[in-house]
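Recap quiz, item 2
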Amino acid sequence: MTEERKHTISLLVDNESGVLSRVAGLFSGRGFNIESLCVAETLDPEFSRITLVTRGNERIIEQINKQLNKLINVVKVTDLTETEFAEREMALVKVRAKEEHRAEILRIVDIFRCKVVDVSPAYYTVEVTGSDEKIAAILGLLKQIGIKEIARTGAIALAREAKK
Amino acid sequence: MEVLKEEGVDTIFGFPGGVIIDINDELDKTDIRYVLVRHEQAAVHAADGYARAKGKVGVCLVTSGPGATNTVTGIASAYMDSIPVVVFTGQVPTALIGNDAFQEVDIVGITRPCTKHNYLVKDPEKLAETVREAFHLARSGRPGPVLVDLPKDVSQSKINFKMPPPPKIKSYCPHTEPHKQQLERAIKLILKAKKPVIFAGGGVILSGAYKELTKFAKKLNIPVTASLMGLGGFPGTDRLWLGMIGMHGTYRANMSTGACDLLLGIGVRFDDRVTGKIDTFAQNAKIIHIDIDPTSIQKNVPITIPIVGDCKIALKKLNKLIEKVDLQESLKSRPNWLKQIEEWKSTTPLAYEQKDVIKPQFVVEKLYELTKGKAIITTEVGQNQMWAAQYYHFDQPNHFITSGGLGCMGFGFPAAIGAQLACPKKTVIDIAGDGSIQMNIQELIVAVSNKLPVKVAILNNRYLGMVRQWQQLFYGKRYAATDIEAAPDFVKVAEAYGAVGLRATRPEEVEETIKKALATPKTVIMDFVVEREECVYPMVPAGKAITEMLLA
Ligand SMILES: Cc1ncc(C[n+]2csc(CCOP(=O)(O)OP(=O)(O)O)c2C)c(N)n1
Ligand SMILES: [Mg+2]
């Protein structure tokens, strides 16, 4: 039995109602786990791209890939983990912005190349984009200052093209 | 309607309702036979039986809401057994969908995990194309049920009809052609094996690979076992036949699987009822696995050589590959292996002792004898199903029709109705339990009114016998909720419906009863009052290796 690993799987699917629930239902029905899942239309409005992150040993991942392929509405399954790929997540973080912390927040924002997207007397909302490690790191720092709430996307990813 | 005809539909099983009045109205103007069942679950089982007996797609038409939900069990059974069925359900008008309208249910949502695919048709212009896709999906690749949900306004609308071309679905192209190199690797392993076993499954039946399998096994002198779904895929009277494998498999089939050095699985999915304790299954063997569905491969057991493809095509190619090979060396070890198997067979055969009370096995043996093994047998679920599998020796495919994967009580009788409609000239017998038969007994009127000479042989033990067997063996004989002594008089029930009822209470009446039933060109129920506490043996207790059988 091989070790459990995180896998990022990219799916090209028909852009019609019910497809997401077929994919989600497959995971719940067969006891596979989904760590995150992102969907949006592609350039061609007939298709959507789903990026999902899951975890499992080799046998489970093989089953996941095959079972996804078997769904009639799934056009293409790519397990990006087997290739070079670019992966991003985004989070919006609402931080308590007391007078004495504002400079500190802005410094963190600067270091992590984030953006402040909303400012109110008591809160700053910070937009952060990057790998899940980067997001975890900034959340760790901002937590000490005080986070009111956050919203996170799952990962989205694309395979890298050859450099030459 | 036009599409249905184009797809070769001649029979539809169904039950009407508000939102499909229009469809039934149109259907009535065609020469498609509409079989009015008395419960929608039975419609799907009947379509399933029809599909299996005829090798065609079975079709159902039911109304929305309760009509649709009643089909779910039937659909799930067809799904587990990969049977091509198309189920049309009525739906409330598109404008009302989502409003909790009268008799609205989200049947597409409900059946998503138990159909191969399903559709809600919202645009009448897409209807014809969708129906064609549904049939294509149901019958191709690994077959399975497909549901098409038809809102009332869609089925009421009039459009300019043009027959759509055969469907091409971008994201669906079943892999039927096996990989050549894999086949060559497989042959190498097979020729090297000293103690090979072939394990055939439902895929052999579904792909029509009976002849190819028989030829292959005989040429290489390899013994063959099968799952419940694979019975009839190889002649059950051949000297190479091992009997069924698994929880109630024969001693020699299970022992050979434990001892073999090569297992060639064809159209199987290594279900837990077959493998027993999974890490002990065929532990001395390399495994070659041929299946059309890639998800079946490497799902439950590690495979040495996976071959994705249609079983029939694969076997044809394997036969071709061995045509020019000198087999002498390879066949050298076979007599020893077959001798070992013969020994298992003679020391530990399937056995029972017929004394004063009728033994259920005896009834099945007599049925086999008196029909010369030629009948189409459907079964209910439980002990009756296992005895049918063990004691009726199937020499041909498509003659054993049972709810294998779902194990659904109430399956056998409606399936027999479907099979009889598919094959009017054949003798069709439902080998039934007294419990299961009561789960779709209302269909008697369908058999009688359609003048179907279906026979039902109830192995009446006044118990939910299979569950009782587990209670006897593993729960200290505490028969909680399994005594069904309180039962109707099945002879009178038959008569009330206009069928013929016969009863046998003593062993010497069995033959006479069967003969009489077979000579009666009507629906007949035979009530065999059998030994109450008979058990099905061999039995592999749950969680044990299949070589660890209880034998009595
Ligand atoms: C719909 C359904 N409910 C429950 C079961 C569980 N079950 C499996 S076998 C069995 C007993 C069947 O009794 P009977 O039809 O009399 O057959 P016997 O085992 O006595 O031959 C039961 C209750 C089932 N398989 N299907
Ligand atoms: Mg019983």
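Chain B is about 35% helix and 15% strand.
The first helix of chain B runs from residue 2 to 6.
End of item.
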